[in-house]
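RETRY 2/3 - previous attempt timed out on the joint model. Re-submitting the same 300-residue input unchanged.
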Amino acid sequence: MSKQTKKILLIAGAALALVAVLAAAWFALGPKGTAGHKNIRVTVVYGDASTDTFSLSTNAEFLRGALEEQSLIEGDENEYGLFVKTVNGVTADEANQEWWCFTKGGEEVLTGVDTTPIADGDAFEITLKAGW
Amino acid sequence: MKKTRGIVVAAFLAAVLAASKYALDGLPNIELVSLLIILYTLEFPSLVFPAVYTYLLVYGLLNGFGLWWFPQLYIWALLILLARFARENRSVLLWALLSGIFGLCYGALYAVAHAFVAGPAGGVAYWVAGIPFDFVHGAGNFAAALVLFSPLRRCLQRVKRAALPHAL
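RETRY 2/3 succeeded.
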């Protein structure tokens, strides 16, 4: 076996090992929704600090599904799912560096709406923020 | 004159990076930037850093300098260093494998910067959420390099012969 072939096999092996590590990480740590009926609360906080609270009853496993069932969110699809631009008809003005911040019980949600699992009794806040 | 030619060629290489990025922007994590940067490193070793950072500046000016932009400052530099390290390699398959591995690692490299902003848990969450796209990125990089490495390299060699004859 030539040196070149050995090198290719070694790098191919490393690539396969990396694929295995990524797959294992995805299955171990990836988002997992739970089936069944849930009641969740969503509070929308607008730029003038006024709020609307919605009680949602859903079978969706992830936040996006629950919010879209009520037509509460719209946005653009990107590589991480839906990038939310509009909440309850209010669109974040990118020219003013506005964006929608998702929190759960006051704690920042680190996943997008597509991969944020929901459970019965969850309370989310969606707040219009200004400044990146 | 040599310096002027170098500046012009670096600007051209940056423009090609930007054009390729925009052309494929609609396809998540399918890009030619990785392959082009590898080829620039091989064919224009002294111009690759100016070209890549000019491209990043232009891309930031056109899209805003959000948090998403900053990790690219070190991610592409790492790819250049990887390509320099492997520059003696003559196998297209090996370059395709290296480009694929880089695509698989892209999310993790990106998540390092995210961890500084959102904490280690935030960095891990960011990385894990993007793993399906890392698979797409790795496969896309592998396929793109396998098919386009040789033809694009020949194109760049023609550019080098025409624009930078003193570099040969």
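Chain B has one domain: 2-167. Closing ticket.
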